[in-house]
Structures
1.
Amino acid sequence: MSASWKQLFFQILLLLVSCRHINTKTPGPTPPPLIPIDQLPTDVRSVVLKGESHTEKVELLNPVNLALECTWTGNQDKLPNITGLWRKNGEEVQNSSQTVLLENDQYNLKRVFSIVNEENLGSYTCEFGSKAKIDFVLAAPQIGEVRDKPIVSYVGDSVVITCKMEDTKPQPSTWNWYRANGTDKEQISTAQEPLRYEIKSEERNTKLVVHSLVEADGGLYYCGAVYAISTSMSHVKLKVINFHEPLKPFIAIVIEVIVLVAIILLYEKSQSKKNSAAGENGTTDQTNTLTQGESNGPEESSSMRQRKV
Amino acid sequence: MTKLRPKARSQGDGAEGPDGGWGWVLVGALFVSTSLVFGLMRSLGIFFVEFVQYFEESAQAISWISSTGLAAQQFFSPLGAALCNAYDTRWIVMTGGCLAGLGLILASQATCLVHLYLTMGVISGLGWGLVFTPMVATVMANFTRRRTLALGLAFSSIGLSSFAFNPLFQLLVEMYTWRGALLILGGLSFNILPCGALIRPQRRSKAPAKVVSESRVSCGSFLQRASSYLELPLLFERPYITYTLAISLLNVGYFVPYFHLVAHSRQVGFSEYQAAFVMSAAGATDILGRIASGWFSDLGHFRLIHLLSMWTTLAGLFIMLLPVSSLSGSYAALMVISLLYGFCSGALTSLVFAVVPMIVGVERMMGALGLLQLIESGAGLLGAPLSGLLKDITGNYTASFMVAGGFVVLGTLTMVTLPHYFSHKDPPSPQRRSPDDTEEGSPAELEQIHSLPSHTNDLTGEVTNKRLPEDTFS
């Protein structure tokens, strides 16, 4: 009995040891449940090429068995057979090179790909010899509105960063936010720092609120729209500046204003002194007397005016 | 004694200004301060996008900020005018500049929307009110023959500064966010201070009234003084009331194209870019119209009031033609009418203020302008919601434009009822009456009593107004 208990104990220990590494943070959604390949839905994309090349964008949400069909109407040579092959991201797919026969004045290439996760996405190309090719760009819906200018905010203030998926595109199942850490992306978890980060996600848009900014908070932030097949990213740059930044032009302007006012007032004082000095010689201009009159006070000036008449 | 009086400075009827020299410096000061008041107000739209995002409020709530600012500027205009009548204009304008800047600086620290209403709206609006009317009145007092040209040149700053401020504010917001940008704007607003400093201390024709009541400091005398500074007696004079009513009616319709032209163009089917271009083109001819009309009016071929009526009639006509021109779907027709409308609306703005001293006299001009601003502001507040309501009811902008144009033409018709409208020469400007005068008798009669002696006064020295208060007390 004890031997079997010991065995159990060791098995459990072994299990625990091997399970220790499970808690790593991976940038990306939890891997989709592994559906056996033959149970995936099937989809077909076909393109008829008349010229030399064509690019087709394919938007995918869920894992799928995607059949890609290429049809080429051929060129003036109209060779009876031609070498066709498939490439993924430029590299030849193994065992895909085949001889394509001219049927009904067309060359046909067809292949089924299992698109299960992010690694399966990319650019799939069918090539006819080296004469014609069709590119299929497989991707999850991309976030269209990317803000190219950085968001600026102040130290101590809070900032709202938003990401939006257009109405024309399918909505993601959830949103994630990441922060650039060197070359890596680190997911932002509100549970870890609830006072600093707040994520408010609705179906098509998401907001990341960062409170109590410090200068170190500046940098690239990524929002990820999570689909079953992969996560589309968009990035926004955050710049955190000190309040001293706008203060510098402000103080410059204030100094300029003070200088101007001083110049104007001093110039006027010197003018009136000049005039009053000239006035004592009896060659007064009307304005001089008036200036003097005004400096004596309003009441006297008006009475002076009366008396002059 | 008489030889020492330069002709230009004769105060025979108080309407002759020196026309040149320092006057042009003041025109420059008015140019700068007007651009910092109205040009700034027009370009605040750039901030509204930021406010909507930061405070998470609706666009309508945010738009109340500029409405409050404009309303405060117009509401406090009589206060500014009265203060200038009581104290030195220079310090009032400088205080106004300080308040305007202070409001914007405090706004940069706002944490909720109400803060913005109070700072950008009320405080800055108060500052603007203390700046605009006094500066306009000062410039007008310094010119006679070139008055309209001076005003036209100065008011062209509104259009020009809108062109310059929009990209500048955009840049400031991108570099420093709205907080930093508002702080810098506050600093820029302080540039009103040197403009105010350029105003030379002037003779205080209101001062005698102050001398009188200084002996009894009581509530009654204070009210009397306040009403004389505010020029409240003007509200009982028919020419002034007629004119104010005419300008208020004009105001109801005048702004409607600025609010709705872009939306109307989009609705008719033109692209965003085309609609915006129509607006910019109208703005450009507006600037042109102000300067051209100012220059032309001062040539003296026609009476100012007749020119004003012509421009307002044309402007009303073109407003009414706007929806008609776009009915045909022709972009060229819409553009032409908009250009013509822009020119006429700019042309009439130069004249609106210049006519006031013709009606009330240069001495009461300050208070008159203040009251005019206050009364016309109420009408302006009516115009935009009314046109919006019409659009909501009828579904397009045709009715709004028609009604707006109608109001403008109605304003012209009201102007026609001004006394001496159909005479070829301007009636002599009324003298300032002492507060002890009775209010009976039409102003026209009193004008005639005053006009004869004052016209012979040209060179014979300053004050021969028999009606100055000193006379009754000396």
2.
Amino acid sequence: AWYILSHINLIEKQRETKGPPNGQVDLEVEKKEIKTETSNDGSGNNNANSSSPGSTSLGATSKSPTGPAEDQQTLLAVLQFLKRNKLNESVDILRREAGLSVEIDDSPGSASGGAGSGGASNSTVDGGDTNSLLSRVSIAIPAAPAVTAAPVPPKVTASGGEDQPDVNVVLSAYSQQGDPDLYPLYYNGLKKFIESVLDCHRAELSQVFYPLFVHMYLELVYNNHEVEAKQFFEKFSGDQECYYAEDLRILSGMTKKEHMKGNETMLDFRTSKFVLRISRDSYQLLKRHLQERQNNQIWNIIQEHLYIDIFDGMPRSKSQIDAMSGSLAGEAKRDANKTKVFYGLLKEPEIEVPLDDEDEEAENEEGKPKKKKPKKDSMGSKSKKQDPNAPQQTRIPLPELKDSDKLDKIMNMKEAAKKIRLGSDNLPSICFYTFLNAYQGLTAVDITDDSSLIAGGFADSTVRVWSVTPKKLRRVKSAADLSNIDKESDDVLERIMDEKTASESKILYGHSGPVYGISFSPDRNYLLSSSEDGTVRLWSLQTFTCLVGYKGHNYPVWDTQFSPYGYYFVSGGHDRVARLWATDHYQPLRMFAGHLADVTCTRFHPNSNYVATGSADRTIRLWDVLNGNCVRILTGHKGPIHSLAFSPNGKFMASGATDGRVLLWDIGHGLMIGELKGHTDTIYALRFSRDGEILASGSMDNTVKLWDTLKAFDDVELDDFTAATGHIHLPENSQELLLGSYTTKSTPVIHLHFTRRNLLLAAGAYNP
Amino acid sequence: MAEERRPKQCTVVLPTESMKAMAESIGVGQLQEESCAALSEEVSYRIKEIAQDALKFMHHGKRRKLMTSDIDHALKIKNVEPLYGFQSQEFIPFRFASGGGRELHFYEEKEVDLSDIINTPLPRVPLDVSLKAHWLSIEGVQPAIPENPPPAPKEQQKAESTEPLKAVKPGQEEEGSIQKGQGATSAEAKGKCKYKCKKEGLIRMKPRSTHELSVEQQLYYKEITEACVGSCEAKRAEALQSIATDPGLYQMLPRFSTFISEGVRVNVVQNNLALLIYLMRMVKALMDNPTLYLEKYLHELIPAVVTCIVSKQLCLRPDVDNHWALRDFAARLMAQSCKTFSTTTNNIQSRITKTFTKSWLDEKTQWTTRYGCIAGLSELGPDVIKTLIIPRLTIEGARIKAVIEGPVVSNIDKIGADHVQSLLLKHCASVIAKTRPLPDNMEQYRVDYGYLGPMLCSHVVKARAQAALQAQQVNRTTLTITQPRSTLTVSQSGIGGSVGSRTPSIIKVPSSLTLMSTRPGTPTQPSPPATKYIVMATSAGASSTQQVITLSSSSASSVTSTVASAASTLQPLVKLESGGGGSLGGSRPLQKYIVVSLPSSASSSLESKSGMLPPSSSSLEAGMKMERSDSPGASTQSPH
């Protein structure tokens, strides 16, 4: 289905490029137009079928028991759209692909109804997808010519006649205006009211200030009240929470209606509703106040641009609110985190340990339970029974284990047996790999799981691989030489290597921009790199050549990572979309769209069924690889997120951002369970020890800090109420959890890695 | 960090003049004011937008500094052609100029001579990226190796001394807490440590001031202190070098501080000049170490230094030993610490000034102390000289006159007065040369400054000439000019050895001196007991050397000869070895040694004609003059 989706997007795009009204416009404009259309479409459906959304969406879900409802709705929306644009062939393809019977779609009510309920979010999703698909013109689809011929629907033309239709549509909500002079009065009135309410409500209601402020300001700007807008901004921007400073700065630059066109931040505000969580009591208070005062201006904004998630129970305290807020679009809706996440680990395949060494086998026997002790509560003994929280073994197809993988696994177990038990009284040793003479050019580092290779991505577009063991890096011999090798010999693997090429490091040339993300495959045969040039490249570490360039992100790709089982990888970039790829497909398998700003970091869950992405919109999202759904939205960071790490048992996640804080998350409940303060600058590296007892964080402030996560997770008291409402009291215990802080000599720490024996490796470039 | 930026948030736009200038540069004249205003707003907005995007690239580039490449990339994602050709350098390539009511920022592009480029050898190929591993931490403890930062940065030392209650970060707790007192037994410290470890997490305790040195640190301390006061000059140089440069000595700082203060206390009583000099050099080295936060130990160090400046007696034979050099050196140290550590709260400088002035004004003060006070004051800078010393020149001159021209009371007094005189002349001349209007009338000077007037006058004239000469040469002889002070070396006299045998050691000195070339001069004492020779080595350039030679050639004919030839000790007392014209000195052309030998009176078996020692005042004068003749030049050249 996703495949088709992207095809459809492509078609749309092609139609746009060839379509008569906007034939020769630059890339930028195209993109926007596509966005408009989809949102147009969404809103159109909304209007048309708002009468019966509930029943129809229900119908849609009931007919597709396998796929989650949202996915289905998206599909239906797309179908509807295609049909209206008379893209019948595509409709057929999509239907076949999706396995939907014809009758369903023929009942127009159901289709559009589905779109209706999911309209707002879906439209943005599509927009995002199309964005990134701009460059992919390579696929020829039979439908394409028909598409070009197809008449453009009148509605689109109508809006397309204008210069920048999308913005106008998006902003149209701002067209209703009151007297600009009254804005400060309104705002002040509300401010006074909120200051006068009971303490318990004040904190909650204060949340309204920021989105209200932003929208009022934008309304003023949109309606060309430049002076008033400036005054309004100056008067009230100081009241906003300090963690919105970054956004306010962007807003402050925006003083004219023309500026609003194409400003992403602004579009984010408009296209996504700002989510607030407010207790019922507080909400009633606010509502009553506004209605009494007939303060329609504010009420309208609240109605239109804010999503107020009302909950029953005690209002939250200021600290509780502060912990969760800070993201670009408010907090996550509570329903957004309700989906069950299978955070358990997959069962390890049974591997027969070779019988050559009795001792080692014994060691393994000893080693295994030792390793699993700390995880027993979550997953039990992994070799015996299935963890109830684990996904089905075959939930997503995983590559078969090769012999070499099995060997590696055995090595892994042997090493693990020698692992040091870490803890608060037994801190790991840290070995620091300093990149010298990098001249500020080091942008990414990765270390193989067995800690034998280090790769660095550099601003000069190169990728360099070092061997940190005595074993040098060798290339495979050329084809001609290979043909001379005796393929039956035992050491054929040794023989294929070219001794002459042995060196400690190799340089990989291919990118045409700084390399921002880098990742080794688990089997150490491949290396991925993502770059400013918009591509992700797959390199062979046998031949040290580039194998594939994955094009899809048209903009800088900030991060990429291999799945822990290999084969799949994920990438995320400036186009706000994270993509899931398989190494043998040149097109993405899944597109995870939903972030409101750049996807800055991507991480696979240890069971490979989920992908976590951190974004510049200050949220973390967890995506289901199986169906591409967003299953968790985690808010609380006050700056772009630059590092993510899953605990080895898959239950917890840590994230670090430019705000210098590390947040700990319980994935199962979708809750923030800890906040680790101490760093003073962006955290670029996070890593759990092999047993998950210690979290290491590395930062731009030239320190590596170690945190006692065992204690952090223990300290959290999770009763049913907090689990249900998500209102957690964070213990202020950063100082107690901090086990150690080690300052480097002006070397920002940009990567951390625990070896299989729990030695901590850190890497960074010396920055004199 | 957001809070810091907050106040800066405002809607700044580019001035419309910039728009005009830009328009003109692309050939659009006569831009209307309104268009300019509209344009400037638009341009400002776009620039901000690009800058915000560029920040993203900076963050992902893991840098703190925005580079031109970030701007290029930001333009690229906006589908704008990047601005090619801008290299990020460490500086902003714009220069500012104003004139004719216009202010301009321009890109400075120097004309480059092609032949220069062709003829210059190629620069070295930049080093390739390489990987280096080291231990950042071993089981939770950060090893003190060069790859790691010094265990406690100066700020932290300061923070800990000013806010002792602040919790220490656990990582540094093991070796981080700085100790205030000392003398706690290691067992006690250990107990505390254990207790603390156990308690960790329950109560965060105030870091104990007790502290334990690791075995290595104890060894280091022992080695260093032994080398510093030991007999081997090479070792001492190494030890001082270590104190002056090694990071992470702060744990030993209290011990060093005590070592010095106790050492001075004991050795002043015993009049052990050599040891006092060693200790002062240790102080100097500690002050030179950029990683040490000395403020906490000033209460021990300053008294020790001041003692070495003003003590009545610093050596066993005040008439022969050159304790003056020590006083000078210590005075410089004092001045330096005043400069670095004096704040409005501790008021070191004013307190020190008061102390000096008080004892100087005292009639009964001995000449030695008097000398020390004046030296201490005059090192504090020309302002102090001007306000405190010059007004008293007349009185002081009278006193000197009384001693020198009056009946010989005691030889010691005479020497003292003589030294004071030369000191005053040396320091005052340069200041007067700068402040006094030109006509240098001998008589006028006598009226103004009394007994010292005429001498002062000639010094001032010399100083002016020197200054003028330097003004001419300022371009060429940079090294000579900036080298402010001569370096002192105190060398021993071998007990029975001939002077010739010592020569090597004396000649060797400069090489060791280069190691510790430091701002104030550094007296060194190569080996054991009695001090008889003071070797003054200045690395003066050819020109000043010449001058000195011509000045002194009349008295010291042995100028160019080696020290060995100077074995004709009795009268010369001063040997000037000038490499420049020397027969032997060819190998070290820039060094010049003034060897002031002050043979001991009767006890010295070395100098055959020891009886001759009581220097005929003329010969000593000659020696002193030489010193002086050298010094005004030096002092005018010196920065202050």
